[in-house]
Design a protein that fits this description.
The structure holds 2 protein chains of 2 kinds. By secondary structure, chain A is α/β, with parallel strands linked by helices. Chain A has 13 helices and 9 strands. In chain A, β7, α8 (194-198) and β8 (210-213) form a beta-alpha-beta unit. The N and C termini of chain A lie far apart (55 Å). Chain B is of the alpha/beta class. In chain B, α2 (81-92) runs parallel beside α4 (132-138), α11 (280-298) runs parallel beside α12 (329-344) and α18 (493-508) runs parallel beside α20. Chain B folds into 4 domains: 3-36, no CATH class; 64-425 and 459-465, Methylmalonyl-CoA mutase (TIM Barrel, Alpha-Beta Barrel), CATH 3.20.20.240; 484-539, no CATH class; 552-708, Rossmann fold (3-Layer(aba) Sandwich). The chains are: A alpha/beta, B alpha/beta. The structure holds cobalamin (B12), guanosine-5'-triphosphate and magnesium ion.
Chain lengths: 341, 709
Amino acid sequence: MCFTNFRCFKSKKLKLMNYNETIEGILKGSRKHLAKAISLLESYREDDLLIAQNLLDELMPSTGKSYRIGITGIPGVGKSTFIEAFGEEILKFEPKKKIAVITIDPSSPKRGGSILGDKVRMNSLSRHENVFVRPSPSKGEQGGGALKTYETCLLMEAAGYDIIIIETLGVGQSEYKVGQMVDAFLLLHMPATGDELQGMKRGILELVDLLIINKCDGKLEHEGKLNKKIFEQVFHLSATKKKWSPPVLLASSKEKEGVGVVWQELKKFLLHQKKTRDFQKKRENQALECFNQQLIFKLNKKIREKETKLLSYEAIQEKIKNGLLCPSKAAQIVLENLMKA
Amino acid sequence: MSESWKSWQEMAQKEAKKDDIEIYRLSPESIPIKRLYVKESLSKEAKDEYPGQAPYKRGPKATMYTGRPWTIRQYAGFSTAEESNKFYKDALSKGQKGLSVAFDLPTHRGYDSDHPRVKGDVGKAGVAIDSVEDMKILFSQIPLDQMSVSMTMNGAVLPILASYVVAAQEQGVSSQKLKGTIQNDILKEYMVRNTYIYPPAPSMRIVTDIMHYTTHNMPLFNSISVSGYHLQEAGADSALELAYTIANALEYVRAAIASGLKVDDFAPRMSFFFAIGMNFFMEIAKLRAARVLWYEMMKEFNPKNPKSSILRTHCQTSGYSLTEKSPYNNIVRTTIEAMAGALGGTQSLHTNAFDEAIALPSLESSRIARDTQLILQKETDINHTVDPLGGSYFVESLTSELIKKAKSIIKEIDDCGGMVNAINAGIPKLRIEESSARKQARIDGKEEIIVGVNDFVDAKNNQDFFDVRVIDNEKVYRLQKAKIEKLRKERDTKRVQSCLKKIKTSAADKSQNLFVTVLEAMKARATVGEVSETIASVFGRYHSPIQSISRVYMENMSEDQSFKKAVENLNSFIISTGRRPRILIAKIGQDGHDRGAKVIATGLADIGFDIDIGPLFQTPQEVAKQAVENDVHMVGISSLAAGHRTLIPELISALKQVKCEDIAVSIGGVIPQKDYKFLLDAGVATIFKPGTSIPECALQILDVLNQKS
Ligand code: B12
Ligand SMILES: Nc1nc2c(ncn2[C@@H]2O[C@H](COP(=O)(O)OP(=O)(O)OP(=O)(O)O)[C@@H](O)[C@H]2O)c(=O)[nH]1
Ligand SMILES: [Mg+2]
């Protein structure tokens, strides 16, 4: 049993708020307008996405001026706790900085809603005037999850955020994708035994710019120190290939120890990148990569739409599955059909 | 099996028209409940057992209620010390035997009444105590050498117990003579009750510091009341409640021994506290099982004094079982529960008032609650015989089953390395939330019937027929503020400062007893808030991580018609707006009741909503910030501790300030009917009353959102 009051909704269609107002709002750093624009990016609807696209396009001149920092690690390693301590550390040294945090949880169910509780572990950071925290809901069903994150970064930059931190769960492919769209990629690791180290995914180490062994407090501290040596060796061996040998740092996010050093080291890395012009090159590649992916994504979508109308897309797929049609020939047919239409 | 058994089975099969006749149902604890228990159902080793003898299954005393009936001890407290004192004296003159103090939430959380974070909560859900001066008023004209006083205090246990000791001293009563109980059970605060202040490790030290002090200076005082009550109220079934309570108690025993106490010095002064819900026989069995478990588990510590392993307990009937709809039905429920408490052999009892789900009890409703116990004691034959159900095939079997079940749950905790570790890993909280979600699904799916709520609903549901207690929060706030200002003016500030400094040193130095330094500070008229802040500057304030469960509700509801309808409506919302409805479920103020918020969050997410959960203890402004950044469609506030009249208008104006009045604000929880108009006028979109099913909530939310877009 509930009592509802419909009187209090006078204004309808608030979602389609004024386009210009939104642009101005974002440029002025309005939380509300930034938040609404991000929702447009997340929308399932074509018309929303078109508006979002135009919006982004107009905001492009004001983007690019931030550091984009990706943070990954297995569930429960302490990413959110780290970001809380890290963000506060940055604000302690540079109180004027504006920090935005995006959290993505690819493990949330593909269908159905999700519970986004991450903020709770960034309790005091999220209260801060200069901080904007946005957990992204489940993305399974929308295309291009990582692309949305990239575009969300752009919006946040336009709204004046200097440091953008993206928390992503170290499962599946999402960490690789995030690794490929940030300026600096941090891996959080938990002190582990030698055996456990054997079992870890090595591939990700190639992308890492800074490795942090978190939870170096209490019982785990000793283990952490041993791990540090092992990782340093690993990085040392591959150092010739890379210009930057990732530092391995010990920290306890809970006790807020060693977190300041991470910020100092990170700044060193970013400076190094700027000096070698790798920073700029990386960003250029990322923008192009984003373009390529969008193109493929949009093309795919178009083809599907058209094909379901013309030839049956499903029928083609069926033939391919049964070995009656060569895949490359099939692609050729589909493409030609599209051009004709 | 005997001939009679076989022919009973045949007959039963015919009557019930079922092949598998033996098991009637599975209890919430997953204990199979049989249709019939017979002599063979008892374990082979069952021997004659006596009350007052190990393992104390039949009661801690030889004569039980035939010697002395259980103590009628009603939990109460509201508004100012002056008001509560008046209420206590009245209750004592009308048959109540002991006092039990309910403090307000700012006091629980270590804030003075004038702290900016707590304005809406002062005096609302208990009595506001800021210093010794308030404590003296609270017990004025109540002789503390004769009265046994129980205090539910855990977070701010140091300054509150100290104030009590000082108030008694200034009444001329030495601490040696004080009788009563301090709850001092911090572990369950992290699990469910949420009035912690500091992190677990230093809080455990506070617990043992108090045990040291009471052991040496307050021999008649129970140093701890290990509480399962709150676990059940938060959703734990009886086995979970039982097991976690015993596991917590063992953790305290270990901590006390590690801190240098001998088991026989303190264990006889440990007491317990259980809830009594509507599963009549299960609850009786639970109390009997608890005594056996405690006796067996305490063997580990080799006590020489038999009292060390005798479990004595207080009980309270379940508030959760009481409904907002058809509230007079609650009198019947409470009576049944009270009977179970008595048949289980409790030492003292609180019976809830029929307006439990509406507000703090009124004068009239608390009279009926108290009289319920008097009727049981004076008008029935319940206390004419010790353990009247002893030997019942059914009750004895259930008792054994519960012991078995509880042991396996305790083992799980042991395997984690004890309760502190288990709590850090979040295990008990998740188990309890799962159990709560399952219960909600059983009710929403009508597998469990609540008369007047999900079946046999009475159309008229009017609170005009009885008085509802109203607390003028503004007035309490003003009075408390004035008293604090007066105190600060009149006290010796230098002395207070030096006491606070000593507290700081003793907090950092484990070899000192924190209680002793706090006692000095309270004597010097430091406030509860000053002492708590000083300790927090060394220990830090604890922030509980919110974990969430998913799919538990859905697994039990997916076939339900209303659930399906809600999913359908939600899907059409997504198609028309391009977004999943996103709701921020938030708590504001010091209200720590999170059962409703959690179950709503998990249920709505299972239906398909995107749910943000806010942390506990937010200000309205903080909630507004989170709502704006996440661009939610609605903020759903869950409010149970009566802060809504202050906090909701503040939230709405905080949203207006950032021009986000398009975000709807809804509220659920304990809201008296006469506040509806006030809230709707303030701009609240929907009020969800206790007893609303989750699919019903979902449909209503979607209606509101559809109207808007
Ligand atoms: C369970 C309970 C507890 C548990 C809480 C466990 C927990 N972790 O939540 C324990 C035992 C710990 C507890 C303690 C206290 N309690 Co208490 N407690 C209750 C009780 C009995 C039931 C509440 C409950 O959980 N119901 C079950 C849930 C599922 O229902 P619900 O929250 O109402 O939610 C439903 C709807 O309201 C709606 N809904 C609710 N919120 C929302 C939000 C949205 C967005 C939507 C859509 C729907 C919705 O949907 C839900 C499903 O139907 C109530 C009385 C009662 N029967 O309501 C007292 C009550 C709330 N407690 C009360 C008090 C005073 C306290 C204490 C402050 C006592 C003290 N002085 O120490 C303490 C301190 C607690 C704290 N930290 O804040 C008072 C508050 C008085 C008032 N409002 O005027 C009450 C009303 C009892 C009374 N009459 O005295 N309590
Ligand atoms: N001892 C210790 N515990 C930590 C530390 N950092 C985090 N934790 C704890 O580890 C648990 C998980 O922390 P989170 O910050 O939520 O971890 P996360 O990686 O963000 O988790 P997900 O988002 O669920 O993947 C929490 O209980 C933290 O309190 C640390 O430095 N030391
Ligand atoms: Mg996280």
